[in-house]
Amino acid sequence: MYTDLAAALAIGVGAIGPGIAIGILTAKGLEAIGRNPEAAGKIQTNMILGIAFAEAVAIYALVVALIIKFV
Hints:
Elements: H1 2-35, H2 40-70
Helix pairs in contact: 1-2
């Protein structure tokens, strides 16, 4: 019972940060592209790289939650 709660808290809390980070990254990236359309390719590349790193943190939280749940 407590392992279920711990797993739910691990993924729930672990996904808040990356969710906020991805939203901010996307908003600022689109704002930068709007201000300087010529640099869209470079901005988009860096934005996608940042999103991938933020998403990796959420995947680590998922792995921890699965370890708590099944081990």
